[in-house]
């Protein structure tokens, strides 16, 4: 057999600028040590023959190292074709951060005219794509804080605005090598394997460059900046993709304003950014106000529990996740083969789809509404969330959040079948969640629960899919509260009577529920008195198959009474004077029914008997005077 290992090794080395590899130290389930996430000397991922990230682990048999840390090492390849092994030859040492950054920078600085211009044009296209609402970059920074909690602890975020800088600080996990490479690249896909993240460190992060010309980062031993002016100086004012060019930065190179602020930052703020605005740092103020005046901002950011904003030394905003105030539902649905195929097609067609979606097996869905003193409180002007709010509103009275595919600026949803399917599943899950508020009789005010039902005539392009899912599921589950014989329960729509006549309306008090059941003999139950007249009850009934009590049913009961016995339930009801009066008054509201009813013995006489209308007389002596 021909040995191809040298050819494979030569292929890798021909694409690299260093003789060593970089990898993350790991121990597998069998206790074998090695290096994974293999990279070249500029931090670039090694790729297999299909141009996918290489999934192999370099074998290592040396002294124990620090798990999760990146090291550089000498190497060679043994084996044939796909069975080859990457072997660590020693010379293992921690990655020299400054040297790595210098190699990454030099590679971009050395680009020749044609390629240099392509990168510069690509940068412009990229910044145009991530330019959404003016405050988008703050959302992206919040996502950055969320996606890497430190040891699973809640993350605290702080923004500090000074004369010339906006500082962004958080207590999440420190940046490591792959994070640095990700923010220095256009689409490194660094989060593709982590389906628990809500942002995509790399592309989304580029929104911070739209209005800033200097971005400094200190974290995890890294000290690096992206500096438009410095790159122009080093390039003799030629156009360069400066947002992709990390510059290693010593503390003495920082100006006094940055030094002063960062010197006072507590050590648990492991990630520290300083952003210098192209025009005036004060332009950040309305964007900070826009984001943090919204007390909903942290609802769907799972790991960030607190965020504050300090302007000129004074705390202007402080938002905390109030778990008691919010009722939040979380669930997942499976990714279908059709959806996975669509994602692959979108990526092939160069649509900006976060590559982590290729590995998603479960789609996360979250719903939220506020609650207070046992009442569900509708949310005004509710937006659709992709963990952070988009600008899409569907007219709902609650918040909808899911693994949606965002558009380029993250201000809306991508017009894709994925989002249509996910939104339909949101409707399904909302039906289940909404019905859960009814499970216990005294847990929530029933009327307040019905207040948040969605409009089934929703015309929003995505709202229509939500309603379709809701209508389908609500017809299948118990969702109508009833009170029968003193017992509270929740029944399916098909087991409930809709009284269209208003005979049992609590407003008119014509006939009690018990009397209605006795007179009609119905096994189905009436809706709970507290929501029987609620305007949104019709949303549940809609076009579903269920029993209705209509005018014709009322006429039938009256017409059948001609042959009823004295012990008939309807007869017992009509012999009560006040009930008889209310019932006849109710019939009067139906106009022609009262004339039809005059042919039946439903009129109470003074002797307690029921008779026909033409056999009931006034005693005229009571109305004559001498």
Give structural notes.
The chain has 626 residues and is of the alpha+beta class. It contains 18 helices and 25 strands.
**Major sheet, described briefly?**
8 strands, mixed
Give the amount of beta strand, in percent.
15-25%
What is the overall shape? elongated
Overall structural class, as computed from helix and strand content, comes to alpha+beta
**Helix fraction?**
25-40%
**Strand adjacency order, main sheet:** 10-9-8-11-7-6-12-13
Q: Could you report the average pLDDT, rounded to the nearest whole number?
A: 88
Count of helical regions: 18
How many extended strands?
25
Task: Using the CA coordinates, give the radius of gyration.
Answer: 35 Å
Q: Report how far the terminal alpha carbons are from each other.
A: 134 Å
Q: In terms of per-residue confidence, which ranges show pLDDT below 50 for 5 or more consecutive residues?
A: none
């Amino acid at each position: 057999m021909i040995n191809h290992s040298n050819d494979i090794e030569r292929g890798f080395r021909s694409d690299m600028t260093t003789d060593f590899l970089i990898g993350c130290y790991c121990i597998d389930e069998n206790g074998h040590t090695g290096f994974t996430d293999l990279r070249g000397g500029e931090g670039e991922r090694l790729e297999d023959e299909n141009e996918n990230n290489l999934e192999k682990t370099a074998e290592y048999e040396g002294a124990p190292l620090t798990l999760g840390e990146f090291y550089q090492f000498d190497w060679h390849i043994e084996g044939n074709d796909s069975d080859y092994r990457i072997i660590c030859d020693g010379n293992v040492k921690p990655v020299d951060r400054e040297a790595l950054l210098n190699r990454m920078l030099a590679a971009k600085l050395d680009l020749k005219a044609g390629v240099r211009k392509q990168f510069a044009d690509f940068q412009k296209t990229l910044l145009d794509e991530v330019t959404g609402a003016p405050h988008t970059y703050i959302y992206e920074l919040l996502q950055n804080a969320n996606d890497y909690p430190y040891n699973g602890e809640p993350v605290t975020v702080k923004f500090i605005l000074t004369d010339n800088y906006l500082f962004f600080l958080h207590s999440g996990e420190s940046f490591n090598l792959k994070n640095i490479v990700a923010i220095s690249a256009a689409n490194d896909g660094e989060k593709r394997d982590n389906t628990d993240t809500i942002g995509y460190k790399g592309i989304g992060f580029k929104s911070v460059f739209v209005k800033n010309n200097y971005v400094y980062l200190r974290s995890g031993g890294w000290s690096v900046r992206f500096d438009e002016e410095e790159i122009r100086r080093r390039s003799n004012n030629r156009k360069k993709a400066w947002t992709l060019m990390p510059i290693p930065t010593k503390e003495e190179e920082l100006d006094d304003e940055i030094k002063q602020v960062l010197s006072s930052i507590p050590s648990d703020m492991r990630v520290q950014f300083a952003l210098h605005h192209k025009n005036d740092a004060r332009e950040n103020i309305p964007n900070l106000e826009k984001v943090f005046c919204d007390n909903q901002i942290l609802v769907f950011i799972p790991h960030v529990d607190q965020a504050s904003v300090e302007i000129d030394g004074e705390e202007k905003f402080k938002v905390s996740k109030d778990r008691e105030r919010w009722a939040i539902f979380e669930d997942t649905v499976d990714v279908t083969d059709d959806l996975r195929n669509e994602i692959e097609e979108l990526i092939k067609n160069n649509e900006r789809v976060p590559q982590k979606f290729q590995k998603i097996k479960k789609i996360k869905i979250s719903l939220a509404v506020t609650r207070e003193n046992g009442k569900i409180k509708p949310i005004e002007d509710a937006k659709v969330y992709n963990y952070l709010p988009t600008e899409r509103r569907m007219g709902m009275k609650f918040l909808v959040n899911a693994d949606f595919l965002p558009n380029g600026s993250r201000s809306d949803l991508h017009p894709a079948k994925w989002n249509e399917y996910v939104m339909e599943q949101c409707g399904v899950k909302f039906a289940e969640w909404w019905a859960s508020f009814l499970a216990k009789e005294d847990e929530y005010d029933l009327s307040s629960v019905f207040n948040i039902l969605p409009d089934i005539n929703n015309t929003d392009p995505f709202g229509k899919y939500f309603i379709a899912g809701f209508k389908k599921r609500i017809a299948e589950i118990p969702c109508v509260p009833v009170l029968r014989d003193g017992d509270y329960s929740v029944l399916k729509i098909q087991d409930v009577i809709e009284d269209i006549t208003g005979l049992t309306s609590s407003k008119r008090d014509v006939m009690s529920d018990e009397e209605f059941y006795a007179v009609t003999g119905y096994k189905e139950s009436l809706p709970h008195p507290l929501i029987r007249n609620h305007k949104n009850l019709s949303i549940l009934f809609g076009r579903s198959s269920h029993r209705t009590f209509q005018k014709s049913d009322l006429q039938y009961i009256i017409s059948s009474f001609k042959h009823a016995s004295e012990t008939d339930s309807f007869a017992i009801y009509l012999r009560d004077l006040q009930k008889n009066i209310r019932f006849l008054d109710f019939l009067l509201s139906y106009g022609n029914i009262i004339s039809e009813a005059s042919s039946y013995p439903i009129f109470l006489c003074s002797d307690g008997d029921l008779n026909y209308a033409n056999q009931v007389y006034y005693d005229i002596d009571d109305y004559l005077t001498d």
